[in-house]
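Q: Predict the assembly, please.
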Amino acid sequence: MESMFWGAALRFCQAFVQAAPTILVGLVVAAVFRRLLGHAGPRRLFGDGSWRSLPQAWLVGMLLPVCSLGVIPVVREMRRAGVSGGAILAFGLTAPLFNPISVLYGLTLADPVVILTFSFCSLVIVTVVGWSWDKLFPHTSAAEPEPPRAPHGLKRMLSLAVFSAREVVSTTSLYIAAGLLGGAALSLLLPHGYLQTAAEHDDPWAPLLMTAVAIPAYATPMTAMVQLASMFQHGNSVGAAFALLALGAGANLGLVAWMIKQYGTRRSLVWFGLLVAVVLMLAYGVDGPLYPHGVDPAGHTHAFDIYCAPFQANTPDSMTLAWRTLLENMAPHEILALLAAAALFVSGLVLLRWDPEGRVERWLETQPQRKTHYDIVLPGHVLGGIALVSLVALSVFGCYVYYPPPKDIFEEMQIVNAEVAVAATSRDWDTALYWIPIYDDWSRKLQVSMYLRGEELTPYLRAKAMVLREKLELLEHEVEDREVEEASRLGVAVSRAFSRLRTAYQP
Amino acid sequence: MCVHQDCRTELALLVLLVCSGCNRSEPVTAEHHVPAHMPASFPAAVDQLTALHREIVDGRERPRDQLDPYTEACDVARWLPGLAADSDLEEQAWMRVDDVSHRLEELLSGTLSRTSGARRPAYLERAAEIERLQRELGQVKRLFPTDSLSAGESEASPESLEPPGAMEG
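A: Predicted assembly structure:
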């Protein structure tokens, strides 16, 4: 029982840590909408009820780096601005599916056409369900009164921070918590490793089963893409992979709860039923045609381990283990995002306690008595546009940071290779299990880095990377089973595969 | 044990289980499935394909509980690029293996799509081209040092590699 509780707590916290950067981005986008663009801005950005509304919502969603939790403050602000229900739901559903970094990662799949097809399918989903919503339930937009604009300068910038701080201590956080609880609940239901055989290619139920798991689950776009890569490597069901992407990354319980609160239970259920039906139809449609050529089903996958209990029943000292696991896997950018979120949360609490009437906002909105003669005043919509374009540009820049040049990647891989090889031969199982996924990840980053920098990625080079990943996969199993001889042999085989990979990439 | 069927049942009762806090305690650890007929190395795969070819041409029959030789040959043909990549084979020779693999797989898939009685005649129709492709594979196999062949390792020594032109004929 104790291990179940701490396992669920770990899943909740892991998801929150992963989501923190994209939640912050969501808060920034919502603040830009409210304080810089005003109500007209978001309506214009999302097509203002015209035929362009749905494809525009899809495109904006594809470019902005938010997840299904980070999208919650954005959709709330879109609703306040009076954007149509169909466009809000289209954006809310597709923004979390992809971002530039995750799309690039998708290129390491056996066939890059897969990721293009999945992107197209997401456009089909938003078009069908967004259009249906607007037809079935017209006139659902309900704009709130627009707040007065803050004057230009420091006050305008400060108003963004004040809005974000208030948003963090509003019902937005409750919806986000609801989304995180979905993952924790799944870990209580599903024992450790329980879904390893849940998405076999020859199992016709796999897309349906994955749909059931994906609805309460939460995944960041990057997590979903890594899962997809793992599923393709293991020859799992493509339909299940699509369902996982569309509903695992695209929807969560928090978003559903917000929808029910805003639009009512009946409308939400009708819409959600339609969404699930479209996702399932597309999932079964792509299942056969997109199945990777030349991949032999491994008979299992680790892609869904994160939705199951992290610990086996009766694991001793699970609290310490959960804490250690959480700390070990935190990335530097996640720590920064957590600190920023904590600062906003504290500021929000202070505002809630000492200024519930919004005096700070009123002060921020007071216009200056004297007009300056030499300042060039940029209108809010220009600044808002620059902010949104900057977010997209930052996301593209992030791609180059996340996927460094091949030379740097090989230096990292050299270190990781030594860690894995030594750990495998010296029976240091925990170290090996820690480094193997990181090694796999670097091998994929290498491929994306070459794409990004215009270097040719020939089938030969792809095959070399595949061999390395296959060896790592086999090694992981032997390490999990504590097979001394096999782990040692595969440790050497991994090193040899790395050496060949390096020779092939840097002749 | 069919684990995913258990999963389906369990997930169908998702809400009930959340309410009851029920949890199954037995862990599931899936093994990585490596087919029994997967060769250990590229040279072994070439030998296996040759043996399968002889078996089919000679009309030897396998017991019903064994994998049929056409499926086995098709699988081995598909694995060739991966096995060749797990060696020191250079890019040009590997590309040759990749091309041969695709063509072989195409020919064998065409045979496999027939009913079991019609497979052998269909295979024999393609036998000349299959033999030619196997000769090409044999030429690539010769790039692997003989001591490693006997040890069953997938090692093509860089020193032994010849330019593609030298392998023709």
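Chain B is about 65% helix and 0% strand. The longest helix of chain B spans residues 116-141.
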